[in-house]
Amino acid sequence: MNIIVAFAKPEDAQNIKSILLRGGYDNVIACTTGVKALSAMENLGSGVIVCGYRLSDMLYSDLAEDLPGYFQMLMVASADKAPFDNFGEKLMFLPSPFSKNDLYTTINMMLEGVTLSRKKAKQKRLHKSEADKKIISKAKELLMERHHMTEPEAHKYLQKCAMNSGTTMLEAAEMVISLNSI
Length: 182
Prior knowledge:
This protein is α/β, with parallel strands linked by helices.
């Protein structure tokens, strides 16, 4: 799993990175700006960002507002800088000074949360409801009946329509049904 360490001072970022590497975390990237952190998050897709209260170009709150979907943030700062908002449960706070065990435990918990949310999203995509399956089947039947397609051809056509229009297969099926009812 991916971890990004973002602190205004390069030595702080490197110190946290080396603590994490010694703790057995493999994929750790250190940076000093919010822009670089956001870019790294976009490239990695999921994980945890560990940051301080202030980066060289933005505050933690600015970064938290732009967190990609499968990232969580651990803000490390003195207790007087504790955040008031947890940004939809995407932000956790670890007051400094902290122990390595506190850091490892918190990071592990956050990584498990990211993994769980990715699994749930994947299962949701894979398990279509019965109603959705009926709509897709109806669209395939219409294509087979009116355009003399085989079932695999109708399926492929719906997939292609979905990809070309940037929609789900269900939405493509609904479009086919609505166009054929005219």
